[in-house]
Amino acid sequence: MKTPIRSLVLAAACCAAGLANAAPQCSGEAVARAKKLLTFHFGEDDRIRISPDVKELPPIRNPANKKQQFKVLEVWGSVYKGEYRMRLIYYVSGNDCTLMGQEILEYANL
Q1: Which residues contact 77 (CB under 8 A, 6 or more apart)?
Q2: What is the full DSSP assignment across the chain?
């Protein structure tokens, strides 16, 4: 039989693992914006694919206000054989995600 403390520790570990797998705030917005970004660069193309996986990177400071930080989300996409890393930069206020910047870089070994 498990002790109550051991059961609580196990439950806390399970909850922490579940939170670690949760999608970052603004991730749905980032995936939608990534699709628009690739479409802007390549035009409408049925071969555009966006990965649903969103990785949160370390935040960056707002250059206009050093007290504020921007959330940086990385999304990968592809068009035909080309792969692209996109970083979308958001200011988050409560539940609102305001797009402040975006970066796209082709993943290529030249």
Answers
A1: 34, 35, 38, 48, 49, 50, 51, 83, 84, 86
A2: ---HHHHHHHHHHHHHHHHHTSPPTTHHHHHHHHHHHHHHHH-S-TTEEEEEEEEEEEEEEETTEEEEEEEEEEEEEEETTEEEEEEEEEEEETTEEEEEEEEEEE----
Closest CA to 70 of 87, 83, 54, 86: 87
For 3-25, what is each residue's pLDDT tens digit? 555 444 444 445 544 555 688 99
Instruction: State the pairing for strand pair 65-79/48-62.
Output: antiparallel
Domains detected in the chain: 24-106 (3.10.450)
**Report field, pTM of the whole predicted structure over 0.70:** yes
